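Good morning,

Attaching, inline, the backbone tokens for the sequence recovery test we're adding to the shared suite. The designed sequence is right after.
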């Protein structure tokens, strides 16, 4: 009888441990998409896309134009809804306020409020985000991104590069835990690119960068997700991606092979 009881106790303990391990694994998942399908009319943008990025990791979403990269980011920030499948941000529905508080989003060709000044944009978005010590945070971002001399300028009068600097600042003003970036280094000169790379590193957030430029992916992230025709065709670390290169082959060509299914 005692032996039977001990065996039953061991089985119960094993179940508890398995449940704890399962919970521990799921708690690390930050950006999660499962079998996502999104169709625009007769165009299939995403066709069973699945992604699972753990907390604190930095990944690049790599693919050609039309692969579904921008659609994926819009789904993650709740601007679009999938036709089927499941999406969560740290366990929250992307359309929920809990998720929105966690996310910083930089769309491709971002458009800050054109009729407001640079400082007014930052103060307005910072207030909406509930940023503590807002004036200090705004001044810090203006200085770090060399925007102080333009702080009273209307956004509509800025160069494209300065608008992009402001868009980056708006995306990270609340020091988000999850950062979604669509071609973040577009229009930026080399010194500013270096500043932005450093700023993102210091935030210590989970990052997903959409790009079709491998040099940007390598600078900003440690992992890669290659998508083609709305599907995840490969995912892993940058080191694993580079290891697939033949002698003298570029990493860009490796990605092309993965996207086209060529061995």
């Amino acid at each position: 009888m005692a032996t039977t009881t001990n065996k039953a106790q061991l089985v119960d303990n094993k179940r508890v441990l398995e449940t704890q391990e399962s919970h521990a694994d799921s708690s690390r998942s930050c950006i999660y998409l499962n079998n996502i399908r999104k169709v625009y009319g007769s165009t299939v943008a995403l066709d069973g896309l699945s992604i699972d990025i753990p907390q604190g990791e930095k990944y690049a979403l790599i693919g050609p134009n039309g692969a579904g990269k921008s659609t994926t980011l819009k789904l993650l920030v709740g601007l679009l809804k999938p036709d089927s499948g499941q999406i969560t941000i740290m366990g929250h529905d992307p359309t929920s306020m809990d998720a929105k508080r966690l996310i910083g989003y930089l769309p491709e060709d971002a458009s800050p409020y054109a009729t407001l000044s640079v400082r007014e944009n930052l103060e307005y978005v910072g207030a909406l985000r509930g940023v503590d010590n807002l004036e200090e945070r705004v001044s810090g971002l203006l200085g770090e991104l060399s925007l102080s001399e333009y702080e009273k300028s209307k956004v509509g009068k800025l160069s494209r590069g300065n608008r992009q600097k402001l868009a980056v600042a708006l995306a990270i003003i609340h020091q988000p835990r999850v950062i979604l970036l669509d071609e973040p280094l577009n229009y930026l000169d080399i010194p500013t690119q270096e500043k932005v790379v450093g700023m993102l590193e210091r935030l210590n957030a989970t990052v997903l960068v959409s790009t079709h430029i491998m040099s940007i992916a390598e600078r900003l992230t440690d992992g890669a997700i290659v998508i083609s025709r709305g599907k995840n065709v490969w995912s892993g670390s940058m080191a694993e991606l580079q290891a697939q290169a033949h002698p003298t082959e570029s990493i860009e060509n490796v990605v092309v092979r993965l996207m086209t299914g060529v061995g």
